[in-house]
Design brief:
Layout: E1 8-9, H1 15-29, H2 35-52, E2 55-59, E3 65-72, E4 75-81, H3 90-102, E5 106-110, H4 114-122, E6 126-131, E7 142-146
Parallel strand pairs: 4-5
Antiparallel strand pairs: 1-2, 2-3, 3-4, 5-7, 6-7
Helix pairs in contact: 1-2
GO molecular function, one term: acyltransferase activity, transferring groups other than amino-acyl groups
InterPro entries: Acyl_CoA_acyltransferase, GNAT_dom
EC number: 2.3.1.-
């Protein structure tokens, strides 16, 4: 079995690589954010992801993180796949792990991130409600998704 199929826990030694994956994924999928906004989010992401929740990842053959998830059960708080690794089932694998092994049934997605919204809807999530601002109070609406019967 390749390392791409083995979910492992993110360690402190992985933090710089995880932040690199986050930034590359955000730049590829969050075209509604300006470069200065992404730069301003980096320290907040570092603090909230690395100090606040368990992180799980998939690694390439060299052991580098190429995709990761952050979970605060029952919510999937973060899911990012490096753009070079998209379309290979890594996101699906991490979400299935989050649901099956971590009890996840909720996730928020930026309304403007149509690719992510379609991904979660394809995996069976449904829109429960909408907020006009994101978790940082910025004017980026969030869709709050849930699995049916949750």
């Amino acid at each position: 079995m390749s390392s791409l199929n083995q979910i492992s826990v993110v360690t402190a030694a992985d933090h710089d690589r995880v932040l690199l994956v986050w930034e590359a994924a955000v730049r590829a999928t969050h075209d509604f954010l300006l470069p200065d906004e992404i730069a301003a989010l980096k320290p907040l992401v570092r603090q909230s992801c690395f100090q606040g929740m368990p992180l799980f990842c998939l690694r390439n053959a060299e052991g580098q993180v190429v995709a990761f998830s952050g979970i605060e059960t029952p919510k999937l708080e973060a899911l990012f796949v490096h753009p070079d690794w998209c379309g290979q089932g890594l996101g699906r694998g991490l979400v299935e792990h989050a649901i099956g092994d971590q009890g996840v049934c909720l996730v928020d997605v930026n309304e403007q991130n149509e690719q992510a919204l379609g991904f979660y809807l394809h995996l069976g999530f449904e829109v429960a409600h909408r907020s006009d601002v994101d978790g940082f109070g910025k004017p980026y609406p969030l869709l709050h998704l849930k699995l049916p019967d949750q």
